[in-house]
């Protein structure tokens, strides 16, 4: 059996490897497919696809599944929906992601202003100079503050300055779940609720969310995930059965920004079988008829 990873980040958002480097690593690990799912952007996909043609074994080619991870608002909380098998040229989706990027930039300007008020010399321009064309996230703030001696570590930066309850934190303006799922479908893709247990809702609240999102057309749920422990995967699989959702799996690889999570294997024992792709492709085919 060959294995896949359907939740992967590059430096097009808050990962540390370029799309080409991610592909090279995936090929070295003999993965059969990865989904590049950078936050609110499709920017790294063409590079990844080109790299896969050049770097993977012709007898066992590495498949690049175009994706993104879209932040949506639910009860004033940030929930993530993965879009998989996307048409990266879809104008409606690209326009929406560009608007989300603009709102993210406005939020970043306000956050850097608040941090400067606390004596931290940080600007969006400095972050962009360090990170190039990446979609700037709080992970980039943390990295900058640590490298410039304002915090001891990225974790320290989040605990002191970047967590949701910090006076320096600025909430973003998000898409609604219904809109995000609709955009993914318009771009020919599948909408998947990412890491459902990471939001720390109790099971009754989580059932409420999944039921609502399923009503909007949610296709799948990320049941196989790096941070799962104990009975976590079984819990998510039961929700999938209850709402007729497909199972997906991903490491949430970010390179050195999450050094304890490896591509393909997560914390060491993650195994996502290639066979998970079959029902996804079947649903996409049925939808296109």
From TrEMBL:
<protein>
    <submittedName>
        <fullName>Phosphatase</fullName>
    </submittedName>
</protein>
<dbReference type="InterPro" id="IPR052018">
    <property type="entry name" value="PHP_domain"/>
</dbReference>
<dbReference type="InterPro" id="IPR016195">
    <property type="entry name" value="Pol/histidinol_Pase-like"/>
</dbReference>
<feature type="domain" description="Polymerase/histidinol phosphatase N-terminal">
    <location>
        <begin position="4"/>
        <end position="74"/>
    </location>
</feature>
<dbReference type="InterPro" id="IPR004013">
    <property type="entry name" value="PHP_dom"/>
</dbReference>
<dbReference type="GO" id="GO:0004534">
    <property type="term" value="F:5'-3' RNA exonuclease activity"/>
</dbReference>
<dbReference type="GO" id="GO:0035312">
    <property type="term" value="F:5'-3' DNA exonuclease activity"/>
</dbReference>
<dbReference type="Pfam" id="PF02811">
    <property type="entry name" value="PHP"/>
</dbReference>
<dbReference type="InterPro" id="IPR003141">
    <property type="entry name" value="Pol/His_phosphatase_N"/>
</dbReference>
């Amino acid at each position: 059996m060959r294995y896949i990873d359907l939740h992967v980040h590059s430096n097009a958002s808050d990962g540390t490897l370029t799309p080409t480097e991610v592909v090279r690593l995936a090929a070295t690990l003999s993965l059969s497919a990865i989904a590049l799912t950078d936050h609110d952007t499709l920017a790294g996909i063409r590079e990844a696809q080109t790299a896969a043609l050049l770097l993977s074994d012709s007898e066992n080619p590495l498949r690049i599944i175009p994706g993104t991870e879209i932040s949506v608002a639910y009860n004033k909380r940030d929930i993530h929906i993965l879009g998989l098998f996307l048409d990266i040229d879809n104008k409606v989706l690209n326009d929406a992601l560009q608007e989300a990027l603009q709102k993210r930039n406005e939020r970043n300007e306000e956050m850097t202003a608040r941090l400067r008020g606390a004596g931290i010399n940080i600007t969006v321009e400095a972050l962009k100079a360090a990170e190039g064309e990446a979609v700037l996230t709080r992970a980039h703030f943390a990295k900058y503050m640590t490298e410039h001696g304002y915090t001891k570590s990225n974790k320290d930066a989040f605990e002191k300055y970047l967590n949701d309850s910090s006076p320096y934190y600025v909430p973003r303006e998000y898409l609604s779940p219904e809109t995000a799922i609709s955009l993914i479908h318009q771009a020919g893709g599948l909408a998947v609720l990412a890491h459902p247990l990471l939001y720390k809702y109790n099971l009754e609240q989580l059932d409420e969310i999944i039921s609502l999102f399923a009503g909007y057309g949610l296709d799948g749920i990320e049941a196989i995930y790096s941070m799962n422990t104990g009975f976590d995967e079984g819990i998510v699989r039961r929700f999938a059965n209850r709402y007729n959702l497909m199972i997906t799996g991903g490491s949430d690889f970010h390179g050195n920004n999450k050094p304890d999570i490896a591509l393909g294997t997560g914390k060491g024992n993650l195994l996502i079988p290639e066979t998970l792709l079959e029902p996804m492709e079947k649903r996409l085919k049925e939808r296109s008829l």
